[in-house]
């Protein structure tokens, strides 16, 4: 029997994230996942610790931690600190850092490097001695200076593409998080995933709303703009084929010299529209409703049932725009309908 997936949310680690996490807890969200893009918003681990101290039940998750941003020991220590504050509530997912690293002007790390980092962190949490950069390392906190080892926190992988799913299988992680539905052979329990989370942006349409409604533009626009940003980042001039893409690229090139354009292209990622991005959303018209999960409450509920049959156990909603609390409330209502 297929069960409807749980609903969670993904948020940037901003100053007001604690209040939003408290609301998510009241609304029945399973977990709050936090972005790890330090060039775009605050520190993920600081925010997770704040939420851990100010909530009672809601799960906490990295969405997703980028290995290259921190030494494995730093990551293991951060995991231990949050685990002490909220035992049993933390999940740590690792990814290659597409947006986080592009915002720093570098490419995502390789799957080989991600696998090495996950193995190192896993071994550290067990209390083992592990080779890091050619030297042995071990968590050696005395009692009272850190949690005792082993530290039981589940590690996830943000898997995408054949290499990503192969790496997840190689690491024997029982949990994965995705930004899109995997191929048929990589779905759900067929390959032994105990948990499978799916990241989705969008907005719940109210009666009478469409792509021209100001609220919809603000809430669904950032998700659509992120697709344009990714197209430009990976394929350059190919973005010209998208509505408004040529003009957007020209604005980026006029604003910054070559080599610095990544410093502005990803601003507002999945959170808010910049003035450069607004013409993109206007030019796209009704197409902004086709990406992510944008639709009325009944259609959102139907999508929960659909992805549940594919093995998804948790839908991670990314609210955007000026009224994130309102987005969280509407999505929770749709998820429960």
Total of domains = 2
Percent range for helical residues? 40-55%
Strand order of the largest sheet: 1-2-3-4-7-8-9-10
Radius of gyration: 20 Å
Low-confidence stretches: none
Supply the CATH class of the largest domain: Alpha Beta
Total DSSP E strands = 10
The global form is globular
> Could you give me the name of the CATH homologous superfamily of the largest domain?
Luciferase-like domain
Architecture per CATH nomenclature, i.e. the level-2 architecture of the largest domain: Alpha-Beta Barrel
**H/E order of the elements?**
EHEHEHEHHEEEHEEHHHHHEH
Strand content: 5-15%
Cα(first) to Cα(last) distance is 19 Å
What number is the mean pLDDT? 95
CATH fold group of the largest domain: TIM Barrel
- What's the helix count? 12
Classification by helices and strands: alpha/beta
Q: How is the biggest beta sheet arranged? A: 8 strands, parallel, barrel
How would you describe this structure to a colleague?
The structure is a single chain. The chain is of the alpha/beta class. The chain folds into two domains: 6-204 and 295-335, Luciferase-like domain (TIM Barrel, Alpha-Beta Barrel), CATH 3.20.20.30; 214-289. The protein is 40% helix and 14% strand. It is built from twelve helices and ten strands. The protein has helices at residues 17-26, 44-54, 72-85, 98-102, 111-126, 161-171, 214-235, 245-255, 262-265, 278-284, 297-309, 324-335; strands at 6-11, 31-34, 59-65, 90-94, 130-132, 135-137, 155-158, 175-178, 195-201, 314-318. The strands form two sheets. Strands 1-2-3-4-7-8-9-10 form an eight-stranded parallel beta barrel, surrounded by six helices.
């Amino acid at each position: 029997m297929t069960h409807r997936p749980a609903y969670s949310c993904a948020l940037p680690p901003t100053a007001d994230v604690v209040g939003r996490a408290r609301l998510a807890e009241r609304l029945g969200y399973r977990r709050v996942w936090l972005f790890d893009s330090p060039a775009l918003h605050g520190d993920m681990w600081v925010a997770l610790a704040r939420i851990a101290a100010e909530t009672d039940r809601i799960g906490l998750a990295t969405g997703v931690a980028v290995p290259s941003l921190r030494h494995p020991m730093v990551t293991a220590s951060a995991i231990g600190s949050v685990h002490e504050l909220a035992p049993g509530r933390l999940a740590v997912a690792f990814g290659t850092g597409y947006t986080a690293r592009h915002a720093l002007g570098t490419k995502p790390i390789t799957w080989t490097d991600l696998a090495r980092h996950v193995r190192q962190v896993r071994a550290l949490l067990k209390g083992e001695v592990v080779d890091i950069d050619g030297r042995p390392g071990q968590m050696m906190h005395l009692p009272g200076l850190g949690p005792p080892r082993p530290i039981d926190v589940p590690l996830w992988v943000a898997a995408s593409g054949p290499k990503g799913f192969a790496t997840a299988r190689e690491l024997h992680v029982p949990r994965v998080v995705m930004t899109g539905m995997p191929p048929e052979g990589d779905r759900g329990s067929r390959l032994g995933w105990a948990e499978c989370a799916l990241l989705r942006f969008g907005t719940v349409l109210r009666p009478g709303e469409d792509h021209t409604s100001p609220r919809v533009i603000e809430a669904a626009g950032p998700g659509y703009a992120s697709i344009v940003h990714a197209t430009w980042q990976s394929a350059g001039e190919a973005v010209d084929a998208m509505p408004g893409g040529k003009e957007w690229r020209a604005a980026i090139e006029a604003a910054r010299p070559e080599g610095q354009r990544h410093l502005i292209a990803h601003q507002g990622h999945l959170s808010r529209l910049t003035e450069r991005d607004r013409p993109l959303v206007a030019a796209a018209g009704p197409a902004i409703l086709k990406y992510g999960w944008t639709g009325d409450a009944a259609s959102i509920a139907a999508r929960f049932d659909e992805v549940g049959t594919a093995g998804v156990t948790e839908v991670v909603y990314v609210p955007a725009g000026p009224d994130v609390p309102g987005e969280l409330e509407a999505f929770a209502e749709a998820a429960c309908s």
